[in-house]
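Summary for the steering committee. One of the milestones for this cycle was to obtain a three-dimensional model of the protein with glutamine bound, which we needed before selecting residues for the alanine scan. The sequence and ligand used are listed below.
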Amino acid sequence: MDYQHILETVWRDIQPYARLGQQADYIPALARVNPDQSGICLKTLDGRTCSVGDADVRFSIQSISKVFSLALALHFEGENLWTRMGREPSGTAFNSLVQLEYEHGIPRNPLINAGALVTADILLDHLPGDPEQFYIDFLRTLCGSPDIDYNTEVAASEQSCGYMNAAIANLLKHYGNIHGDLDRVMRLYFMMCSVEMSCRELAQAFIPLANHHQPFCFAGIDLTTSQIKRMNAIMQTCGFYDEAGEFSYLVGLPGKSGVGGGIAAICPMRYTIAVWSPRLNAKGNSILGMKALELFTTLTAESIF
Ligand code: GLN
Protein backbone atom coordinates (compact mmCIF):
# COMPACT_ATOMS: atom_id res chain seq x y z
CA MET A 1 0.00 0.00 0.00
CA ASP A 2 1.43 3.39 -1.00
CA TYR A 3 0.46 5.25 2.17
CA GLN A 4 2.38 8.40 1.25
CA HIS A 5 0.45 8.71 -1.98
CA ILE A 6 -2.84 8.10 -0.17
CA LEU A 7 -1.99 10.74 2.46
CA GLU A 8 -1.27 13.23 -0.31
CA THR A 9 -4.63 12.46 -1.94
CA VAL A 10 -6.39 12.87 1.41
CA TRP A 11 -4.54 16.13 1.98
CA ARG A 12 -5.63 17.52 -1.35
CA ASP A 13 -9.24 16.43 -0.92
CA ILE A 14 -9.67 17.90 2.58
CA GLN A 15 -8.56 21.42 1.64
CA PRO A 16 -12.15 22.63 0.93
CA TYR A 17 -12.88 21.98 4.63
CA ALA A 18 -9.82 23.85 5.91
CA ARG A 19 -11.65 27.03 6.96
CA LEU A 20 -14.66 25.42 8.60
CA GLY A 21 -15.11 25.54 12.37
CA GLN A 22 -13.43 27.47 15.13
CA GLN A 23 -10.51 26.76 17.39
CA ALA A 24 -11.20 26.34 21.12
CA ASP A 25 -11.36 29.74 22.74
CA TYR A 26 -12.59 28.85 26.21
CA ILE A 27 -8.91 28.35 27.07
CA PRO A 28 -7.46 31.82 26.29
CA ALA A 29 -3.99 30.52 25.37
CA LEU A 30 -5.50 28.14 22.79
CA ALA A 31 -7.41 31.00 21.18
CA ARG A 32 -4.02 32.49 20.23
CA VAL A 33 -2.86 29.46 18.20
CA ASN A 34 -2.71 30.04 14.43
CA PRO A 35 -5.68 27.96 13.19
CA ASP A 36 -4.31 27.64 9.67
CA GLN A 37 -1.84 24.90 10.48
CA SER A 38 -2.47 21.22 9.94
CA GLY A 39 -0.63 17.99 9.50
CA ILE A 40 -0.90 14.22 9.37
CA CYS A 41 1.60 11.52 10.32
CA LEU A 42 1.18 7.80 9.82
CA LYS A 43 3.43 5.09 11.24
CA THR A 44 3.13 1.45 10.30
CA LEU A 45 4.05 -1.43 12.56
CA ASP A 46 6.55 -2.57 9.95
CA GLY A 47 8.48 0.67 10.45
CA ARG A 48 7.35 3.07 7.73
CA THR A 49 6.57 6.74 8.44
CA CYS A 50 4.61 8.98 6.06
CA SER A 51 3.51 12.55 6.62
CA VAL A 52 2.01 15.65 5.06
CA GLY A 53 1.72 19.27 6.20
CA ASP A 54 2.83 20.46 9.63
CA ALA A 55 3.45 16.97 11.01
CA ASP A 56 6.39 18.18 13.11
CA VAL A 57 4.76 21.21 14.69
CA ARG A 58 3.91 20.62 18.34
CA PHE A 59 0.43 21.47 19.59
CA SER A 60 -1.56 21.13 22.80
CA ILE A 61 -2.61 17.48 23.11
CA GLN A 62 -5.40 18.35 25.61
CA SER A 63 -7.72 15.36 26.03
CA ILE A 64 -5.45 12.98 24.13
CA SER A 65 -3.51 13.06 27.42
CA LYS A 66 -6.40 11.08 28.95
CA VAL A 67 -5.24 7.99 27.05
CA PHE A 68 -1.80 8.17 28.64
CA SER A 69 -3.15 8.81 32.13
CA LEU A 70 -5.54 5.88 31.66
CA ALA A 71 -2.56 3.65 30.83
CA LEU A 72 -0.88 4.70 34.08
CA ALA A 73 -4.06 4.25 36.14
CA LEU A 74 -4.64 0.77 34.69
CA HIS A 75 -1.06 -0.16 35.53
CA PHE A 76 -1.43 1.01 39.12
CA GLU A 77 -5.01 -0.04 39.85
CA GLY A 78 -5.87 -2.87 37.43
CA GLU A 79 -9.54 -3.84 37.59
CA ASN A 80 -9.94 -1.84 40.79
CA LEU A 81 -10.08 1.26 38.60
CA TRP A 82 -13.66 0.38 37.70
CA THR A 83 -14.86 0.93 41.25
CA ARG A 84 -14.17 4.66 40.67
CA MET A 85 -15.48 5.11 37.09
CA GLY A 86 -17.38 3.31 34.36
CA ARG A 87 -16.47 2.30 30.83
CA GLU A 88 -19.63 3.21 28.96
CA PRO A 89 -19.93 5.97 26.36
CA SER A 90 -21.33 9.11 27.94
CA GLY A 91 -23.34 10.47 25.03
CA THR A 92 -22.76 13.89 26.58
CA ALA A 93 -20.23 16.70 26.19
CA PHE A 94 -16.72 16.16 27.52
CA ASN A 95 -17.33 18.58 30.39
CA SER A 96 -20.93 17.66 31.19
CA LEU A 97 -22.04 17.95 34.83
CA VAL A 98 -25.59 16.64 34.64
CA GLN A 99 -24.85 12.95 34.15
CA LEU A 100 -22.28 13.01 36.94
CA GLU A 101 -24.91 14.19 39.40
CA TYR A 102 -27.47 11.60 38.29
CA GLU A 103 -24.84 8.91 38.63
CA HIS A 104 -23.68 10.00 42.08
CA GLY A 105 -20.16 11.06 41.23
CA ILE A 106 -19.12 7.99 39.21
CA PRO A 107 -17.87 9.26 35.81
CA ARG A 108 -19.12 7.30 32.81
CA ASN A 109 -15.61 6.64 31.50
CA PRO A 110 -11.96 7.69 31.83
CA LEU A 111 -11.92 9.74 28.60
CA ILE A 112 -14.31 12.51 29.68
CA ASN A 113 -13.13 15.26 32.01
CA ALA A 114 -14.79 13.80 35.12
CA GLY A 115 -13.07 10.44 34.56
CA ALA A 116 -9.72 12.07 33.91
CA LEU A 117 -10.00 14.14 37.09
CA VAL A 118 -10.55 10.93 39.08
CA THR A 119 -7.59 9.41 37.22
CA ALA A 120 -5.45 12.41 38.23
CA ASP A 121 -6.46 11.83 41.85
CA ILE A 122 -5.45 8.16 41.54
CA LEU A 123 -2.08 9.11 40.02
CA LEU A 124 -1.40 11.51 42.88
CA ASP A 125 -1.97 8.60 45.29
CA HIS A 126 0.49 6.37 43.49
CA LEU A 127 3.14 8.99 42.67
CA PRO A 128 3.99 10.73 45.92
CA GLY A 129 7.20 12.30 44.58
CA ASP A 130 6.79 14.50 41.51
CA PRO A 131 3.83 13.21 39.45
CA GLU A 132 4.25 15.87 36.76
CA GLN A 133 7.86 14.77 36.24
CA PHE A 134 6.84 11.11 36.19
CA TYR A 135 4.11 11.72 33.62
CA ILE A 136 6.28 13.71 31.23
CA ASP A 137 9.13 11.19 31.55
CA PHE A 138 6.64 8.44 30.67
CA LEU A 139 5.51 10.33 27.56
CA ARG A 140 9.10 11.13 26.57
CA THR A 141 9.95 7.44 26.66
CA LEU A 142 6.79 6.50 24.80
CA CYS A 143 7.32 8.88 21.88
CA GLY A 144 11.13 8.81 21.91
CA SER A 145 11.42 12.61 22.16
CA PRO A 146 13.29 13.66 25.30
CA ASP A 147 12.36 17.31 24.84
CA ILE A 148 8.55 17.22 24.73
CA ASP A 149 7.18 19.23 27.64
CA TYR A 150 4.27 20.90 29.37
CA ASN A 151 3.19 24.33 28.24
CA THR A 152 2.81 25.96 31.65
CA GLU A 153 1.23 29.04 30.06
CA VAL A 154 -1.58 26.91 28.61
CA ALA A 155 -2.03 25.09 31.93
CA ALA A 156 -2.19 28.39 33.86
CA SER A 157 -4.51 29.88 31.26
CA GLU A 158 -6.92 26.96 31.60
CA GLN A 159 -6.69 27.03 35.39
CA SER A 160 -7.49 30.76 35.42
CA CYS A 161 -10.94 30.14 33.92
CA GLY A 162 -11.51 26.42 34.42
CA TYR A 163 -14.86 26.90 36.13
CA MET A 164 -16.52 23.85 34.57
CA ASN A 165 -13.68 21.57 35.54
CA ALA A 166 -13.71 23.06 39.05
CA ALA A 167 -17.46 22.35 39.23
CA ILE A 168 -16.91 18.75 38.11
CA ALA A 169 -14.07 18.31 40.60
CA ASN A 170 -16.22 19.72 43.42
CA LEU A 171 -19.06 17.35 42.57
CA LEU A 172 -16.64 14.42 42.53
CA LYS A 173 -15.28 15.51 45.90
CA HIS A 174 -18.81 15.82 47.29
CA TYR A 175 -19.50 12.20 46.32
CA GLY A 176 -16.20 11.04 47.82
CA ASN A 177 -14.65 10.14 44.46
CA ILE A 178 -11.71 12.51 44.83
CA HIS A 179 -9.60 11.67 47.85
CA GLY A 180 -6.84 14.25 47.60
CA ASP A 181 -6.67 18.03 47.57
CA LEU A 182 -8.90 19.50 44.84
CA ASP A 183 -6.48 22.20 43.71
CA ARG A 184 -3.68 19.67 43.46
CA VAL A 185 -5.84 17.29 41.39
CA MET A 186 -6.85 20.08 39.01
CA ARG A 187 -3.27 21.30 38.69
CA LEU A 188 -2.08 17.86 37.59
CA TYR A 189 -5.07 17.50 35.22
CA PHE A 190 -4.43 20.88 33.54
CA MET A 191 -0.71 20.14 33.27
CA MET A 192 -1.35 16.78 31.58
CA CYS A 193 -3.70 18.49 29.09
CA SER A 194 -1.07 21.16 28.33
CA VAL A 195 1.60 18.77 27.00
CA GLU A 196 2.70 19.66 23.47
CA MET A 197 3.48 16.97 20.93
CA SER A 198 3.59 16.80 17.14
CA CYS A 199 1.61 14.41 14.93
CA ARG A 200 4.82 12.43 14.43
CA GLU A 201 5.34 12.10 18.20
CA LEU A 202 1.72 11.14 18.83
CA ALA A 203 1.82 8.53 16.08
CA GLN A 204 4.91 7.06 17.75
CA ALA A 205 3.39 7.18 21.24
CA PHE A 206 0.35 5.21 20.05
CA ILE A 207 2.41 2.40 18.46
CA PRO A 208 2.18 0.13 21.55
CA LEU A 209 -1.62 0.42 21.41
CA ALA A 210 -1.67 -0.68 17.77
CA ASN A 211 0.80 -3.45 18.56
CA HIS A 212 -1.55 -5.05 21.05
CA HIS A 213 -0.18 -8.56 20.67
CA GLN A 214 2.89 -7.41 22.65
CA PRO A 215 2.66 -6.48 26.33
CA PHE A 216 3.22 -2.78 27.00
CA CYS A 217 6.39 -2.01 28.93
CA PHE A 218 7.66 1.59 28.97
CA ALA A 219 9.41 3.55 31.71
CA GLY A 220 8.49 0.90 34.27
CA ILE A 221 4.80 0.91 33.31
CA ASP A 222 3.47 -2.52 32.33
CA LEU A 223 0.16 -3.40 30.75
CA THR A 224 -0.91 -6.84 29.60
CA THR A 225 -2.09 -7.48 26.05
CA SER A 226 -5.58 -7.78 27.47
CA GLN A 227 -5.32 -4.36 29.12
CA ILE A 228 -4.17 -2.81 25.82
CA LYS A 229 -7.12 -4.44 24.06
CA ARG A 230 -9.39 -2.84 26.64
CA MET A 231 -7.82 0.59 26.27
CA ASN A 232 -8.53 0.36 22.53
CA ALA A 233 -12.12 -0.70 23.26
CA ILE A 234 -12.57 2.35 25.48
CA MET A 235 -11.14 4.65 22.80
CA GLN A 236 -13.50 3.11 20.26
CA THR A 237 -16.59 3.65 22.40
CA CYS A 238 -15.66 6.80 24.36
CA GLY A 239 -12.83 8.63 22.56
CA PHE A 240 -14.98 11.35 20.97
CA TYR A 241 -17.51 12.19 23.71
CA ASP A 242 -20.97 12.59 22.20
CA GLU A 243 -19.53 12.02 18.75
CA ALA A 244 -18.06 8.58 19.46
CA GLY A 245 -20.73 6.88 17.37
CA GLU A 246 -20.17 9.28 14.48
CA PHE A 247 -16.40 8.77 14.53
CA SER A 248 -16.92 5.02 14.63
CA TYR A 249 -19.36 5.26 11.72
CA LEU A 250 -17.23 7.56 9.57
CA VAL A 251 -13.73 6.35 10.42
CA GLY A 252 -13.91 2.98 12.14
CA LEU A 253 -10.78 3.23 14.27
CA PRO A 254 -10.18 3.46 18.02
CA GLY A 255 -8.93 6.99 18.64
CA LYS A 256 -8.90 10.02 20.87
CA SER A 257 -9.42 13.71 20.18
CA GLY A 258 -8.47 16.85 22.05
CA VAL A 259 -9.65 20.46 21.88
CA GLY A 260 -6.19 21.48 20.68
CA GLY A 261 -7.39 19.99 17.36
CA GLY A 262 -5.44 16.74 17.52
CA ILE A 263 -6.75 13.24 16.88
CA ALA A 264 -4.67 10.08 17.34
CA ALA A 265 -5.99 6.73 16.19
CA ILE A 266 -4.81 3.18 15.66
CA CYS A 267 -5.52 0.32 13.30
CA PRO A 268 -4.68 -2.83 15.31
CA MET A 269 -1.54 -4.61 14.08
CA ARG A 270 -1.24 -2.21 11.12
CA TYR A 271 -0.65 1.48 11.81
CA THR A 272 -1.11 4.55 13.97
CA ILE A 273 -2.19 7.89 12.57
CA ALA A 274 -2.23 11.36 14.10
CA VAL A 275 -3.90 14.39 12.55
CA TRP A 276 -3.94 17.99 13.70
CA SER A 277 -5.98 21.00 12.69
CA PRO A 278 -7.17 23.46 15.38
CA ARG A 279 -10.59 24.28 13.95
CA LEU A 280 -13.26 22.28 15.79
CA ASN A 281 -16.88 21.32 15.27
CA ALA A 282 -19.56 21.94 17.91
CA LYS A 283 -18.64 18.72 19.74
CA GLY A 284 -15.03 19.82 20.21
CA ASN A 285 -13.49 17.55 17.57
CA SER A 286 -11.23 18.68 14.71
CA ILE A 287 -13.24 19.07 11.51
CA LEU A 288 -10.30 18.53 9.18
CA GLY A 289 -9.01 15.73 11.38
CA MET A 290 -12.26 13.78 11.20
CA LYS A 291 -12.57 14.36 7.48
CA ALA A 292 -8.98 13.28 6.84
CA LEU A 293 -9.40 10.05 8.78
CA GLU A 294 -12.74 9.29 7.13
CA LEU A 295 -11.12 9.63 3.70
CA PHE A 296 -8.02 7.70 4.75
CA THR A 297 -9.92 4.62 5.94
CA THR A 298 -12.17 4.82 2.88
CA LEU A 299 -9.25 4.94 0.43
CA THR A 300 -7.21 2.26 2.22
CA ALA A 301 -10.21 0.10 3.22
CA GLU A 302 -8.22 -0.45 6.43
CA SER A 303 -10.24 0.07 9.56
CA ILE A 304 -11.36 -2.31 12.29
CA PHE A 305 -14.57 -3.09 10.38
N1 GLN B 1 -8.29 20.70 29.00
C1 GLN B 1 -9.53 20.57 28.32
C2 GLN B 1 -10.68 20.70 29.31
O1 GLN B 1 -10.57 20.19 30.38
C3 GLN B 1 -9.58 19.24 27.62
C4 GLN B 1 -10.88 19.01 26.90
C5 GLN B 1 -10.72 18.31 25.58
O2 GLN B 1 -9.67 18.25 24.97
N2 GLN B 1 -11.83 17.82 25.09
O3 GLN B 1 -11.69 21.29 29.06
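Key point for the committee: The domain at 3-300 is CATH 3.40.710.10 (Beta-lactamase).
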